[in-house]
Amino acid sequence: MVTLPNTPPLPGGIALSHLSPYDWQAADGVCGGSPHLHLVCTEAYVVTGGTGSVQTLSPDGYRELPLQAGTVAWFTPGTVHRMVQGEDLRITVLMQNSGLPEAGDAVFTFPSDYLDDPDRYAAAATLPPLDSPDIEAAARKRRDLAVEGYLTLRESLRAGDPAPYRAFQEAAARLVAPKAAAWRGIWERGALAAAQQTGTQLDALATGTAGDYLATATALSTDPLRLGGYGMCGRRDEYQLPSG
Question: Which of 11, 32, 133, 243 has the most CB atoms at less than 10 Å from its CB?
């Protein structure tokens, strides 16, 4: 990885990773990832190969969006999503607000008794180190627990009852609320700072002083920091990217 002083973040302060959904079969016969939602981040899938789908739960109800090479799908905060493996599905994930997902912005659809107990939730959501011989079994167990809660929410929505889904959203918000102050700092240093920098550049263009920031122009590149990690949706290639 190239490391430079004051390395700028990716455009808009986004985060990026590469994913291939798990091919483990769940209780409903579907192969795929761990259903979850994000509290303040919009997530986008850019499909680079293969086929599959993403299942979502939202006020729109239950939907299944087909995915194939060239598809771009995205979902806003509060949307439960489950990535489904078809055949060799490969996705580049773009995530709003740089490091917030890694700071706890994502909440699994575990059964409600886990959401009401922060310690129990954390124990079920946390995986052992990547080099642990138990990590795959732990990731499967976590995925299956999330699917268990997800199927209950999905069936209620299909039956016309949104109350369990809304209750899950509210429980997820309560679970992460203590982290909101720390998240604000990540957002201020990342996405907000990137937007404010554009404003500064526009001011410089208008006043004829653009040369000051154009003089710092550069090009950057990086490679994955870790290959094949066990993410929420599947095996994940991760990058160590500046977030501001």
Answer: 32
pTM of the model: 0.92
**b or e along 180-192 (b: 16 or more beta carbons within 10 Å of the residue's beta carbon)?**
eeebeebbebbbe
The tokens for 127 are: 């995986």
In the chain, % of residues over pLDDT 70? 95
Instruction: Let me know if 166 is exposed, middle or buried by CB neighbors in 10 A (0-12, 13-18, 19+).
Output: middle
The answer to whether residue 4 sits within a structural domain is no
Half-sphere exposure of 181 (CA within 13 A, CB side): 1
CATH of the domain at 22: 2.60.120.10
User: Whole-angstrom Cα distance, residue 190 to residue 118?
Assistant: 28
| Residue span of the structural domain in which 208 resides | 11-238
**Number of domains comprising the chain:** 1
For the chain, the C-alpha Rg in angstroms (whole number) is: 19
